[in-house]
What does this fold into?
Amino acid sequence: MLELARWGAQIEKYFSAKHQRYQPMDIEWAKDGKTKELFIVQARPETIHAAADKKVYKEYRLSSTSTVLVMGAAVGTKIASGKVRLIKSPKELSRFQKGEILVTKITDPDWEPIMKIASAIVTDEGGRTSHAAIVSRELGIPCIVGSERATRTLKDGQMITVDCSSGEVGKVYEGNLPFEIKEHHLDKLPKTRTKVMVNIGAPDEAFKNYYLPAQGVGLGRLEFIIASHIKVHPNALLQYAKLKSSALKKAIDRLTPGYTDKKQFYIDELAEGIAKIGAAFWPNEVIIRFSDFKTNEYRKLLGGDAYEPIEENPMLGWRGASRYYDEKFKDAFGLECIAMKKVREDMGLQNVIPMIPFCRTPEEGQKVIKIMETHGLDRARDKTLRVYVMCEIPSNILRVDEFLDVFDGMSIGSNDLTQLTLGLDRDSGIVTHIANEKDASVKQLIKTVIQKCLVRKKYIGICGQAPSDYPDFAEFLVSEGITSISLNPDTVIKTLSVIAEKEKNK
It folds into this structure.
């Protein structure tokens, strides 16, 4: 990797000098399987991204929806409408017309001439690193991969709308739906005293949203990496040699090619996912929350039913900090710590800060800190390391001084804090109408913890849903002097203006 990086820098320098301006390059390389030698096989000026106006952020939004015909992994953040052109083999490529939507099983380099004139692409197979996904990113067109049934569901000539604007899942809607493109001039956005951060789920979202006017990541979730990339319960990997089910072993083997040490697979996948987020927002602070799956969610992982109890209300059960020091999960938490240490020390991403979720008492917090220390995450040894805790239980506020004796700061989880303050199960749709995060009792608790953290000179932010949903809630947080507000990517720009205006009139 270092050799390729050096070559890439040399090539870029050469072409920049030749053109007498900075010239980013599209470089392809190969490695000889026998001699292990590296070769540069192609280098050409990169034009699509280089020509884009980096000061303008285009936000795509559907004005209405219709029947969802197909879903898959979204590539890009755009929306496009057009007629379906179903292509089953390279022999049919000549049928494709400019502006149509390419629907096919999978693409390869021979298809690139028609991909360049497509308004969107939908495939049955492939993932985010497939040929269709890579080329679509380069071309800047929306693409949905891995839909499994697009070629069976969509018909030639059918009018559809491909929507990749709403996160990881892309949707194909029936008909030609109206949508708007809103341009935000990033260089004209107001500056704020309150640090505006962004919530990131899957690591790929970091690359999509790195250019937002956000000063780091207020919440990165390990659950997305575990569910999407690992897919196996950590205890099943730790106890792989003792597994009695040959079917389970075979399933794990299919997910972990090249790994005889299965726990190393878990560590490497976690570390890679964390590092993507940390690198995308370097040098800004990136807060990564350790796993906060509930028992019913852990059971869905491969092998999970052997290690997880069935709870009547998992929301209030074995989750967060209580798992980390439990003998039944302590070793699995150790793998998360090792991955975090690898990111911070081996990869040098010291802007990554670990955070403990759902910590019911300061005593629990002390137990978790000790386990972290045994795996190398030791603040006495690493003076740059800080450890935050989620503030999402009334006890976190009622015993705030004791929690702040253990941790370096708090991040408010308004969703859980609301349910536990008002006695609501947020997974139940029956009673959720009673109140939301703007309830006076919740706001009083938030006001109290902000004031206490400011007095103690400790970090205090919020990563819950409330400021993304309610602009007036963001105004309330600013008026109380919160350090940072972390928002969902699609609300960063509009909420930034709200925060700036509130600060102006404060």
